[in-house]
Write a structure and sequence with these properties.
The chain is of the alpha+beta class. The protein has three helices and six strands. The protein has helices at 32-41, 48-59, 98-106, and strands spanning 21-23, 63-64, 80-81, 86-87, 90-91, 119-121. A two-stranded antiparallel sheet has the order 1-6. Strands 2-3 form a two-stranded antiparallel sheet. Strands 4-5 form a two-stranded antiparallel sheet. The longest helix is centred in the middle third of the chain and has 12 residues, at 48-59.
Length: 122
């Protein structure tokens, strides 16, 4: 146990007509782009090709704070990837995209585990 209380399972959620449940799948780790840039800057010169490739990946996945709530729901990460989270020309506020998260893992960010999942009730 992590001190956060007992784990909640989807089967434990009481369902009823007036209690809809939304599972929020957002990674709102702030500053992940900047952290990756710092890792690239501190990489050894031998990794120059990898660093150039990582910069291209980051450049092709720009973030914006001009977002709508995902699927017009109540919850948003407050930012989203203009490439991956585009919904008919408007980015959804889904936080960090899978591409940037994978790039961050390559630089040492621990991947999310089940303790990082939060159940959000509407």
């Amino acid at each position: 146990m992590t001190g956060r209380g007992p784990k909640m399972r989807l089967a434990d959620i009481a369902r009823g007509p007036k209690a809809p449940v939304t599972i929020a799948e957002l990674d709102a780790t702030p500053g992940l782009h900047e952290w990756i840039e710092q890792q690239i800057a501190s990489a050894p010169a031998a990794d120059a090709r990898w660093s150039r490739a990582a910069r291209k990946i980051l450049a092709s996945h720009p973030y914006t704070t001009s977002v709508i709530n995902p699927q017009y729901g109540r919850h948003t990460a407050g930012f989203g990837c203009e490439t991956c989270h585009d919904w008919d020309g408007v980015p959804e506020g889904r936080g960090n995209c899978d591409t940037v998260l994978a790039l961050a893992e390559a630089y040492g960010l621990d991947p999310a585990d089940e303790t990082d999942v939060e159940v959000v009730r509407d």
